[in-house]
Amino acid sequence: DTSLGEVNSFSPSMPISPSSMINQYKFEDEPELRDLFITVDDPESHITAIETFITYRVVTKTSRGEFDSSEYEVRRRYQDFLWLKSKLEEAHPTLIIPPLPEKFIMKGMVERFNDEFIETRRKALHKFLNRIADHPTLTFNEDFKIFLTAQAWELSSHKKQGPGLLSRMGQTVRAVASSVRGGVKNRPEMFTEMNDYMETFSQKINVLDKIAHRIYKEEREYFNEMKEYGPIHTLWSASEEDIADSLKGVASCIDKCCKATEKRMAGLSENLLPILHEYVLYSEILMGVLKRRDQIQGELDSKVDALANKKTEKDLFSEEIGKLEDKVECANNALKADWDRWKQNMQCDMRSTFTNVAENNLRYYEECLATWESFLASQTVDLHVEEDSEDRP
Fold it and tell me: Where do the PX domain residues begin and end (predicted)?
Protein backbone atom coordinates (compact mmCIF):
# COMPACT_ATOMS: atom_id res chain seq x y z
CA ASP A 1 0.00 0.00 0.00
CA THR A 2 1.76 3.12 -1.24
CA SER A 3 2.16 5.85 1.37
CA LEU A 4 1.85 9.56 0.66
CA GLY A 5 5.58 9.93 1.09
CA GLU A 6 6.22 7.30 -1.56
CA VAL A 7 3.90 9.04 -3.99
CA ASN A 8 5.84 12.30 -3.60
CA SER A 9 9.35 10.84 -3.71
CA PHE A 10 11.50 9.49 -6.53
CA SER A 11 12.98 6.03 -6.45
CA PRO A 12 16.73 5.86 -7.28
CA SER A 13 15.93 3.17 -9.84
CA MET A 14 13.28 5.27 -11.58
CA PRO A 15 14.10 5.87 -15.28
CA ILE A 16 15.19 9.39 -16.12
CA SER A 17 13.24 9.64 -19.37
CA PRO A 18 9.65 10.83 -18.88
CA SER A 19 8.51 8.44 -21.61
CA SER A 20 10.07 5.57 -19.66
CA MET A 21 8.24 6.77 -16.56
CA ILE A 22 4.91 6.54 -18.36
CA ASN A 23 5.68 3.01 -19.52
CA GLN A 24 6.69 2.01 -16.01
CA TYR A 25 3.29 2.91 -14.57
CA LYS A 26 0.98 1.57 -17.27
CA PHE A 27 -1.45 -1.01 -15.95
CA GLU A 28 -1.00 -4.48 -17.36
CA ASP A 29 -4.69 -5.33 -17.38
CA GLU A 30 -6.95 -3.62 -19.89
CA PRO A 31 -10.04 -1.95 -18.39
CA GLU A 32 -13.27 -3.91 -18.46
CA LEU A 33 -15.62 -3.35 -21.37
CA ARG A 34 -17.78 -0.33 -20.64
CA ASP A 35 -21.53 -0.34 -21.19
CA LEU A 36 -22.27 3.32 -20.43
CA PHE A 37 -20.84 6.25 -22.40
CA ILE A 38 -21.66 9.86 -21.53
CA THR A 39 -20.73 13.07 -23.34
CA VAL A 40 -21.30 16.63 -22.11
CA ASP A 41 -21.13 19.21 -24.91
CA ASP A 42 -22.95 21.98 -26.81
CA PRO A 43 -23.25 24.68 -24.09
CA GLU A 44 -26.16 27.04 -24.71
CA SER A 45 -26.96 30.39 -23.06
CA HIS A 46 -30.46 31.13 -21.75
CA ILE A 47 -31.54 34.65 -20.83
CA THR A 48 -34.78 35.21 -18.92
CA ALA A 49 -36.25 38.14 -17.04
CA ILE A 50 -35.04 36.60 -13.79
CA GLU A 51 -31.67 35.02 -14.59
CA THR A 52 -29.08 34.07 -17.15
CA PHE A 53 -27.78 30.51 -17.19
CA ILE A 54 -26.06 27.90 -19.34
CA THR A 55 -27.38 24.46 -20.23
CA TYR A 56 -25.26 21.60 -21.53
CA ARG A 57 -26.27 18.72 -23.74
CA VAL A 58 -25.81 15.33 -22.05
CA VAL A 59 -25.73 12.43 -24.50
CA THR A 60 -25.84 8.89 -23.09
CA LYS A 61 -25.25 5.68 -25.01
CA THR A 62 -25.70 2.36 -23.22
CA SER A 63 -26.30 -1.34 -23.68
CA ARG A 64 -27.67 -1.92 -20.18
CA GLY A 65 -30.96 -3.76 -19.86
CA GLU A 66 -32.41 -1.43 -17.21
CA PHE A 67 -32.49 1.44 -19.73
CA ASP A 68 -35.51 1.61 -22.03
CA SER A 69 -33.46 2.95 -24.93
CA SER A 70 -29.85 2.68 -26.08
CA GLU A 71 -29.39 6.44 -26.49
CA TYR A 72 -30.62 9.54 -24.67
CA GLU A 73 -30.13 13.25 -25.19
CA VAL A 74 -31.13 15.78 -22.52
CA ARG A 75 -30.11 19.29 -21.51
CA ARG A 76 -28.96 20.06 -17.99
CA ARG A 77 -27.89 23.18 -16.13
CA TYR A 78 -25.36 23.45 -13.32
CA GLN A 79 -28.07 23.32 -10.63
CA ASP A 80 -29.13 19.88 -11.95
CA PHE A 81 -25.60 18.58 -11.48
CA LEU A 82 -25.62 19.95 -7.92
CA TRP A 83 -28.90 18.12 -7.26
CA LEU A 84 -27.42 14.85 -8.55
CA LYS A 85 -24.36 15.21 -6.34
CA SER A 86 -26.49 15.87 -3.25
CA LYS A 87 -28.70 12.83 -4.01
CA LEU A 88 -25.63 10.60 -4.39
CA GLU A 89 -24.23 11.85 -1.07
CA GLU A 90 -27.60 11.26 0.58
CA ALA A 91 -27.89 7.71 -0.77
CA HIS A 92 -24.21 6.78 -0.29
CA PRO A 93 -22.85 8.84 2.64
CA THR A 94 -19.65 6.80 2.97
CA LEU A 95 -18.78 6.57 -0.72
CA ILE A 96 -16.42 9.07 -2.36
CA ILE A 97 -18.60 11.19 -4.67
CA PRO A 98 -16.56 12.94 -7.41
CA PRO A 99 -16.27 16.74 -7.05
CA LEU A 100 -18.15 19.26 -9.14
CA PRO A 101 -16.58 22.51 -10.36
CA GLU A 102 -17.32 25.24 -7.86
CA LYS A 103 -19.66 28.13 -8.45
CA PHE A 104 -17.76 30.96 -10.06
CA ILE A 105 -16.53 33.08 -7.15
CA MET A 106 -12.79 33.45 -7.83
CA LYS A 107 -11.63 37.02 -8.33
CA GLY A 108 -9.19 38.07 -10.98
CA MET A 109 -10.10 35.24 -13.31
CA VAL A 110 -12.17 35.17 -16.50
CA GLU A 111 -15.65 36.63 -16.51
CA ARG A 112 -18.59 34.36 -15.96
CA PHE A 113 -20.16 32.95 -19.14
CA ASN A 114 -17.25 33.78 -21.42
CA ASP A 115 -16.05 31.01 -23.74
CA GLU A 116 -13.03 30.03 -21.65
CA PHE A 117 -15.05 29.66 -18.44
CA ILE A 118 -17.85 27.73 -20.16
CA GLU A 119 -15.42 25.30 -21.77
CA THR A 120 -13.56 24.75 -18.49
CA ARG A 121 -16.84 23.99 -16.73
CA ARG A 122 -18.03 21.73 -19.57
CA LYS A 123 -14.89 19.59 -19.25
CA ALA A 124 -15.33 19.36 -15.48
CA LEU A 125 -19.00 18.34 -15.79
CA HIS A 126 -18.07 15.76 -18.42
CA LYS A 127 -15.45 14.28 -16.08
CA PHE A 128 -17.90 14.33 -13.14
CA LEU A 129 -20.49 12.22 -14.97
CA ASN A 130 -17.96 9.80 -16.39
CA ARG A 131 -16.36 9.24 -12.99
CA ILE A 132 -19.81 8.30 -11.69
CA ALA A 133 -20.43 6.07 -14.70
CA ASP A 134 -17.14 4.23 -14.04
CA HIS A 135 -17.89 3.76 -10.33
CA PRO A 136 -19.03 0.18 -9.52
CA THR A 137 -21.83 1.36 -7.16
CA LEU A 138 -22.75 4.93 -8.11
CA THR A 139 -23.29 3.99 -11.74
CA PHE A 140 -26.42 1.99 -10.77
CA ASN A 141 -27.95 4.76 -8.64
CA GLU A 142 -31.57 5.43 -9.65
CA ASP A 143 -31.23 9.23 -9.44
CA PHE A 144 -28.21 9.03 -11.76
CA LYS A 145 -30.31 7.11 -14.29
CA ILE A 146 -33.10 9.69 -14.02
CA PHE A 147 -30.58 12.52 -14.47
CA LEU A 148 -29.34 10.92 -17.72
CA THR A 149 -32.73 10.02 -19.19
CA ALA A 150 -35.54 12.30 -17.91
CA GLN A 151 -36.69 15.30 -19.86
CA ALA A 152 -36.50 18.70 -18.14
CA TRP A 153 -40.09 18.69 -16.85
CA GLU A 154 -39.75 15.09 -15.61
CA LEU A 155 -36.54 15.89 -13.76
CA SER A 156 -38.12 18.99 -12.23
CA SER A 157 -41.04 16.90 -10.99
CA HIS A 158 -38.71 14.25 -9.58
CA LYS A 159 -36.57 16.85 -7.78
CA LYS A 160 -39.65 18.03 -5.86
CA GLN A 161 -40.05 14.55 -4.37
CA GLY A 162 -37.08 15.01 -2.03
CA PRO A 163 -37.15 14.23 1.71
CA GLY A 164 -39.68 16.17 3.76
CA LEU A 165 -38.84 19.02 6.11
CA LEU A 166 -39.09 16.88 9.27
CA SER A 167 -36.81 14.25 7.75
CA ARG A 168 -34.22 16.88 6.82
CA MET A 169 -34.45 18.43 10.29
CA GLY A 170 -33.91 15.04 11.89
CA GLN A 171 -30.82 14.43 9.78
CA THR A 172 -29.45 17.86 10.70
CA VAL A 173 -30.07 17.36 14.43
CA ARG A 174 -28.34 13.96 14.39
CA ALA A 175 -25.40 15.37 12.45
CA VAL A 176 -24.97 18.27 14.87
CA ALA A 177 -25.31 15.99 17.89
CA SER A 178 -22.67 13.65 16.49
CA SER A 179 -20.28 16.47 15.65
CA VAL A 180 -20.36 18.00 19.13
CA ARG A 181 -20.11 14.70 20.97
CA GLY A 182 -16.33 14.66 20.68
CA GLY A 183 -13.91 12.14 19.26
CA VAL A 184 -15.05 8.64 18.37
CA LYS A 185 -13.95 6.18 21.05
CA ASN A 186 -14.00 2.93 19.09
CA ARG A 187 -12.81 4.09 15.68
CA PRO A 188 -10.83 1.28 13.99
CA GLU A 189 -7.13 2.00 13.49
CA MET A 190 -7.55 1.82 9.70
CA PHE A 191 -9.82 4.88 9.68
CA THR A 192 -7.52 6.80 12.01
CA GLU A 193 -4.73 6.16 9.50
CA MET A 194 -7.02 7.31 6.67
CA ASN A 195 -7.78 10.51 8.56
CA ASP A 196 -4.07 11.19 9.18
CA TYR A 197 -3.30 10.46 5.53
CA MET A 198 -5.97 12.89 4.33
CA GLU A 199 -4.78 15.67 6.64
CA THR A 200 -1.27 15.34 5.20
CA PHE A 201 -2.58 14.95 1.65
CA SER A 202 -4.79 18.03 2.00
CA GLN A 203 -1.84 20.16 3.13
CA LYS A 204 0.41 18.95 0.31
CA ILE A 205 -2.15 19.21 -2.49
CA ASN A 206 -3.14 22.74 -1.41
CA VAL A 207 0.53 23.78 -1.47
CA LEU A 208 0.97 22.22 -4.92
CA ASP A 209 -2.16 24.00 -6.16
CA LYS A 210 -0.86 27.39 -4.98
CA ILE A 211 2.61 26.79 -6.47
CA ALA A 212 1.10 25.76 -9.82
CA HIS A 213 -1.00 28.93 -9.96
CA ARG A 214 2.04 31.04 -9.10
CA ILE A 215 4.08 29.34 -11.84
CA TYR A 216 1.29 29.99 -14.34
CA LYS A 217 1.03 33.64 -13.28
CA GLU A 218 4.79 34.16 -13.63
CA GLU A 219 4.77 32.40 -17.00
CA ARG A 220 2.02 34.70 -18.24
CA GLU A 221 3.94 37.79 -17.10
CA TYR A 222 7.06 36.50 -18.87
CA PHE A 223 5.01 35.82 -22.02
CA ASN A 224 3.47 39.31 -22.01
CA GLU A 225 6.90 40.93 -21.68
CA MET A 226 8.45 38.73 -24.36
CA LYS A 227 5.70 39.65 -26.83
CA GLU A 228 7.01 43.24 -26.80
CA TYR A 229 10.65 42.36 -27.57
CA GLY A 230 10.11 40.96 -31.07
CA PRO A 231 8.51 44.12 -32.54
CA ILE A 232 11.15 46.26 -30.77
CA HIS A 233 13.98 44.41 -32.56
CA THR A 234 12.14 44.68 -35.88
CA LEU A 235 11.81 48.45 -35.46
CA TRP A 236 15.42 48.68 -34.40
CA SER A 237 16.54 46.89 -37.58
CA ALA A 238 15.07 49.72 -39.68
CA SER A 239 17.59 52.19 -38.24
CA GLU A 240 20.65 49.88 -38.17
CA GLU A 241 21.43 48.91 -41.75
CA ASP A 242 24.65 47.05 -40.92
CA ILE A 243 23.04 44.68 -38.45
CA ALA A 244 19.48 44.74 -39.80
CA ASP A 245 19.48 41.04 -40.75
CA SER A 246 20.79 39.99 -37.34
CA LEU A 247 18.18 42.07 -35.53
CA LYS A 248 15.42 40.61 -37.69
CA GLY A 249 16.79 37.15 -36.89
CA VAL A 250 16.61 37.90 -33.15
CA ALA A 251 13.04 39.14 -33.58
CA SER A 252 12.13 35.90 -35.38
CA CYS A 253 13.69 33.79 -32.61
CA ILE A 254 11.81 35.71 -29.93
CA ASP A 255 8.57 35.23 -31.85
CA LYS A 256 9.12 31.45 -32.08
CA CYS A 257 9.96 31.23 -28.37
CA CYS A 258 6.89 33.32 -27.58
CA LYS A 259 4.66 30.84 -29.42
CA ALA A 260 6.34 27.93 -27.62
CA THR A 261 5.74 29.67 -24.28
CA GLU A 262 2.07 30.20 -25.13
CA LYS A 263 1.76 26.50 -25.94
CA ARG A 264 3.37 25.55 -22.63
CA MET A 265 0.96 27.86 -20.77
CA ALA A 266 -1.97 26.17 -22.49
CA GLY A 267 -0.65 22.81 -21.28
CA LEU A 268 -0.49 24.09 -17.70
CA SER A 269 -3.99 25.59 -17.75
CA GLU A 270 -5.60 22.59 -19.45
CA ASN A 271 -3.79 19.71 -17.76
CA LEU A 272 -1.97 20.62 -14.54
CA LEU A 273 -4.18 23.27 -12.88
CA PRO A 274 -7.54 21.43 -13.25
CA ILE A 275 -6.15 18.11 -11.95
CA LEU A 276 -4.54 19.68 -8.88
CA HIS A 277 -7.67 21.67 -8.05
CA GLU A 278 -9.85 18.60 -8.55
CA TYR A 279 -7.85 16.81 -5.86
CA VAL A 280 -8.05 19.85 -3.59
CA LEU A 281 -11.82 19.36 -3.80
CA TYR A 282 -11.41 15.60 -3.37
CA SER A 283 -9.50 16.18 -0.13
CA GLU A 284 -12.46 18.16 1.25
CA ILE A 285 -14.90 15.46 0.10
CA LEU A 286 -12.89 12.68 1.73
CA MET A 287 -12.64 14.52 5.03
CA GLY A 288 -16.44 14.84 4.91
CA VAL A 289 -16.87 11.12 4.16
CA LEU A 290 -14.64 10.19 7.11
CA LYS A 291 -16.67 12.49 9.38
CA ARG A 292 -19.92 10.85 8.23
CA ARG A 293 -18.46 7.42 8.98
CA ASP A 294 -17.47 8.66 12.43
CA GLN A 295 -21.01 9.97 12.98
CA ILE A 296 -22.43 6.50 12.36
CA GLN A 297 -19.81 5.02 14.67
CA GLY A 298 -20.58 7.66 17.29
CA GLU A 299 -24.29 6.89 17.14
CA LEU A 300 -23.52 3.20 17.77
CA ASP A 301 -21.16 4.04 20.66
CA SER A 302 -23.79 6.23 22.34
CA LYS A 303 -26.40 3.45 22.12
CA VAL A 304 -23.96 0.93 23.60
CA ASP A 305 -23.24 3.34 26.49
CA ALA A 306 -26.95 3.94 27.01
CA LEU A 307 -27.61 0.20 27.11
CA ALA A 308 -24.93 -0.28 29.76
CA ASN A 309 -26.52 2.41 31.96
CA LYS A 310 -30.14 1.28 31.58
CA LYS A 311 -31.74 -1.70 33.22
CA THR A 312 -35.02 -1.50 31.33
CA GLU A 313 -35.78 -1.51 27.59
CA LYS A 314 -32.77 -3.75 26.98
CA ASP A 315 -34.49 -5.65 24.19
CA LEU A 316 -35.33 -2.42 22.34
CA PHE A 317 -31.79 -1.11 22.73
CA SER A 318 -30.29 -4.43 21.67
CA GLU A 319 -32.33 -4.37 18.46
CA GLU A 320 -31.25 -0.79 17.69
CA ILE A 321 -27.63 -1.65 18.41
CA GLY A 322 -27.81 -4.63 16.08
CA LYS A 323 -29.09 -2.40 13.26
CA LEU A 324 -26.41 0.22 13.95
CA GLU A 325 -23.70 -2.44 13.99
CA ASP A 326 -24.84 -3.56 10.53
CA LYS A 327 -24.90 0.07 9.40
CA VAL A 328 -21.36 0.68 10.67
CA GLU A 329 -20.10 -2.49 9.01
CA CYS A 330 -21.68 -1.50 5.68
CA ALA A 331 -20.22 2.00 5.98
CA ASN A 332 -16.77 0.62 6.80
CA ASN A 333 -16.78 -1.86 3.92
CA ALA A 334 -18.04 0.74 1.43
CA LEU A 335 -15.41 3.28 2.45
CA LYS A 336 -12.55 0.74 2.49
CA ALA A 337 -13.32 -0.42 -1.05
CA ASP A 338 -13.79 3.14 -2.32
CA TRP A 339 -10.63 4.32 -0.54
CA ASP A 340 -8.42 1.79 -2.33
CA ARG A 341 -10.03 2.62 -5.66
CA TRP A 342 -9.70 6.38 -5.14
CA LYS A 343 -6.07 6.17 -4.05
CA GLN A 344 -5.12 4.10 -7.09
CA ASN A 345 -6.85 6.61 -9.40
CA MET A 346 -5.24 9.55 -7.58
CA GLN A 347 -1.73 8.10 -7.88
CA CYS A 348 -2.28 7.31 -11.57
CA ASP A 349 -3.61 10.85 -12.23
CA MET A 350 -0.70 12.47 -10.40
CA ARG A 351 1.93 10.40 -12.18
CA SER A 352 0.37 11.05 -15.57
CA THR A 353 -0.08 14.79 -14.90
CA PHE A 354 3.44 15.50 -13.65
CA THR A 355 4.98 13.28 -16.33
CA ASN A 356 3.10 15.25 -19.00
CA VAL A 357 4.30 18.53 -17.45
CA ALA A 358 7.90 17.26 -17.49
CA GLU A 359 7.63 16.16 -21.12
CA ASN A 360 6.06 19.48 -22.14
CA ASN A 361 8.87 21.35 -20.39
CA LEU A 362 11.49 19.25 -22.18
CA ARG A 363 9.87 19.91 -25.56
CA TYR A 364 9.64 23.63 -24.77
CA TYR A 365 13.31 24.02 -23.82
CA GLU A 366 14.49 21.84 -26.71
CA GLU A 367 12.45 23.93 -29.17
CA CYS A 368 13.77 27.23 -27.78
CA LEU A 369 17.35 25.92 -27.67
CA ALA A 370 17.17 24.68 -31.26
CA THR A 371 15.78 28.06 -32.38
CA TRP A 372 18.65 30.04 -30.87
CA GLU A 373 21.34 27.51 -31.88
CA SER A 374 20.15 27.69 -35.49
CA PHE A 375 20.29 31.48 -35.40
CA LEU A 376 23.77 31.54 -33.84
CA ALA A 377 25.03 29.03 -36.40
CA SER A 378 23.80 31.26 -39.23
CA GLN A 379 25.54 34.26 -37.69
CA THR A 380 28.81 32.32 -37.39
CA VAL A 381 28.66 31.32 -41.08
CA ASP A 382 28.03 34.94 -42.11
CA LEU A 383 30.96 36.09 -39.97
CA HIS A 384 33.35 33.57 -41.61
CA VAL A 385 32.19 34.64 -45.10
CA GLU A 386 32.91 38.29 -44.27
CA GLU A 387 36.34 37.45 -42.88
CA ASP A 388 37.26 35.43 -45.99
CA SER A 389 36.19 38.24 -48.31
CA GLU A 390 38.34 40.74 -46.36
CA ASP A 391 41.41 38.49 -46.62
CA ARG A 392 41.26 38.29 -50.41
CA PRO A 393 43.59 40.69 -52.35
Answer: 34-155
